[in-house]
Write a structure and sequence with these properties.
Layout: E1 4-9, E2 15-21, H1 23-26, H2 32-45, H3 105-121, E3 125-128, H4 138-147, E4 154-158, H5 163-169, E5 175-179, H6 185-190, E6 193-197, H7 198-208
Parallel strand pairs: 1-3, 3-6, 4-5, 4-6
Antiparallel strand pairs: 1-2
């Protein structure tokens, strides 16, 4: 099996090195059904499920008729807790519920490496030697993205949290940042470009293999 390698760039998009990639992470066959299942589960598990409204029986108040059934000229009403009244209950009330879905570890791993491998095959993975900022400047990150001609959803993957990079990236609408150990299948699929630092690739291999 041929070895996988990728070019390594600096922040100005100039090639500085090459890096050998692990076949178990970046050379796996594409499996769309498993990726779909895991992404749906990740999104479902992120839902809080805390929406809550009151039904007619749960609204505080009495059940007395507001006025007589007949001879008033008004429409018939049973009580003021009915849905047509202000402050009344909802017809189909929403109650808190658990949206979470369970997926076994093997499927999660397969979906993750399959998504990464597909990104690699589509040339949508970029490796940067390092991303270092002396000051918190959005312009530095924006210039880097401009050098690579990235103008669609992009995620930067670091080896560890870097407050300067996080703050400098926060003002760019289509850019997200994360660390190698927290990168999810959904983030890989949802972003057009995945930018790793060289050290993040090594951290990813240590964490996932």
């Amino acid at each position: 099996m041929a070895k996988l390698s990728i070019k390594v760039y600096d922040m100005n998009a100039k090639e500085v090195d090459t890096l050998e990639l692990n076949q178990d992470l970046f050379g796996v066959e594409y499996n769309e059904p498993v990726i779909h299942e895991v992404v749906v589960a990740e999104n479902a598990n992120a839902r809080q499920g805390t929406k809550s409204t009151l039904s007619v029986s749960e609204v505080r108040g009495h059940h007395k008729k507001p006025y007589a059934q007949k001879h008033t000229g008004n429409a018939r009403h049973g009580n003021t807790k009915a849905p047509q009244y202000k402050g009344g209950g909802k017809v189909h009330s929403i109650n808190p519920r658990d949206f979470s879905k369970k997926v076994n570890k093997q499927k999660k791993y397969l979906a993750f490496v399959s998504a990464l491998s597909q990104k690699f095959n589509q040339n949508e993975i970029t490796v940067v030697d390092e991303i270092k900022l002396t000051d918190v400047k959005t312009k530095v990150i924006a210039d880097m993205l401009k050098a690579f001609k990235f103008d669609r959803k992009t995620i930067i993957v670091l080896d560890t949290n870097d407050e300067k990079v996080l703050k400098a990236s926060a003002n760019i609408p289509f850019l997200a940042t994360t660390t190698a150990d927290l990168l999810s299948t959904y983030e890989v699929v949802a972003n057009k470009n995945v930018v790793f630092t060289k050290s993040a690739i090594k951290k990813l291999e240590e964490a996932r293999i």
